[in-house]
Structures are given as C-alpha cells and as structure tokens.
Amino acid sequence: MKDELLRQIKDEVLNLKESPLYQERKKNAVFPVIGEGNHDCRIMFIGEAPGKNEAATGRPFCGAAGRILDELLASAGIERNDVYITNIVKDRPPFNRDPLPEEIKTYGPFLDRQINIIQPHVIATLGRFSMEYIMRKFNLQDELQPISKIHGLMFPARAEYGSVKIIPLYHPAVAIYDNSTKDTLKNDFQVLKSI
Ligand code: URA
C-alpha cells in the first residue's frame, strides 16, 4: 500500500510539466529525486533540493554532501537503509541556487504526502529551508529561530497520524570544508541515536 502510494507520487512528479524546473530537467536530460529508503522507517531526513549528482542519478544525497551524511549516519550507528531520505524540492534548481518560494510551494505538497504515507516518528531537517517548511507545517512557527540557535534540539509536534519529533540539523554541505561544523553535526546526530 505505502509502495503504491509513493509510486503514485513519483509518477506525478515525473509528469509535473507545469513546474519551470521540469523544463530544466528535460533540457539537461536529468531526473527528479523523489526520495529513497525504508518506507517503514522511524527517521525521515529532509534536505533542500537535488544537486548535480542527485539529478544525474535520481538519488538523494549521493554527492559530496551525501558522503558527509553517510559519515554522520555511521557516527550515530544508523544504517542508511533504515531511514528515508528526501528533499522539499524534487528537481534541481539551476546552478544549485537556493529554492524559490514558489518552488517550495509547488513541491511541498508531495513532501506532505510522503510524510503522511511513511509516518515517521522523527523528522530530521537538513538545512534552513526544510527546517522552516517543516516547523511551519507542524505549527512550530513560534519556535523558529536561526538554525545556529536551534540545531540539534527536539521539538515534539502532532502529525495527522500521531506524534512526531522534529529535529533541525545543519545541512551536511556546510561541513564539507568546515570540520567544526562537522563536529557539531556529529554531536547533533547523537540526539537521533538516543531516540
Ligand atoms: N543537497 C540536498 O539538499 N539534497 C540532496 O539530495 C543533495 C544535496
């Protein structure tokens, strides 16, 4: 049942001709990135948008940021196969620019459906765009602060399917050239391990 509903989302995104990023996808002969992982996971990770490697393969976090994510998961003893990983925006913004508000509006409903189908107990956001989207979605807008203030904290919330914990994390890409952020991220991933 979950597989079927998720496949439906994939088909809809594949045919999302009204999105300007669809034109980019066709022009560059690349793929949307729907998400990947365990459909019965406890933890769902939500990044921002596919980068070059992700659009080339259709897989989330498979480039440099993905290698950091893999390292962080390993440091917390979490198997990548046990979690689900996706992004808010499913098509690559040109030149890896930040997603535009209208792109988040276009692709957000697909993410909302993925969350309701997968029903994770924990949602870990990667970066400020998914942090803002998810915290507003779960009525945590009053708790929103710069990511430097609230990374690694756990915010209990209610989803349509029950309770869920939201944990904002830095985007792994910020740790590519910055070891102190990587240490911070490793520390924050221990929170995931503990639950
Ligand atoms: N950055 C993201 O936010 N998502 C990916 O899938 C890859 C890099």
From TrEMBL:
Reactions this protein catalyses: Hydrolyzes single-stranded DNA or mismatched double-stranded DNA and polynucleotides, releasing free uracil
Entry keyword set: 4Fe-4S, DNA damage, DNA repair, Hydrolase, Iron, Iron-sulfur, Metal-binding
InterPro entries according to UniProt: UDG_Type-4/5 (IPR051536), Ura-DNA_glyco_family4 (IPR005273), Uracil-DNA_glycosylase-like (IPR005122), Uracil-DNA_glycosylase-like_sf (IPR036895)
Lineage: superkingdom: Bacteria
Pfam families for the chain: UDG (PF03167)
CDD domains recorded: UDG-F4_TTUDGA_SPO1dp_like
EC annotation from Swiss-Prot or TrEMBL: 3.2.2.27
Gene Ontology biological process: DNA repair
Residue intervals of the Uracil-DNA glycosylase-like domain: 34-190
Enzyme class: hydrolase
GO molecular function: 4 iron, 4 sulfur cluster binding; metal ion binding; uracil DNA N-glycosylase activity
Family statement drawn from the similarity comment of this UniProt entry: Belongs to the uracil-DNA glycosylase (UDG) superfamily. Type 4 (UDGa) family.
Protein name, UniProt field: Type-4 uracil-DNA glycosylase
Species name: Candidatus Wolfebacteria bacterium GW2011_GWB1_41_12
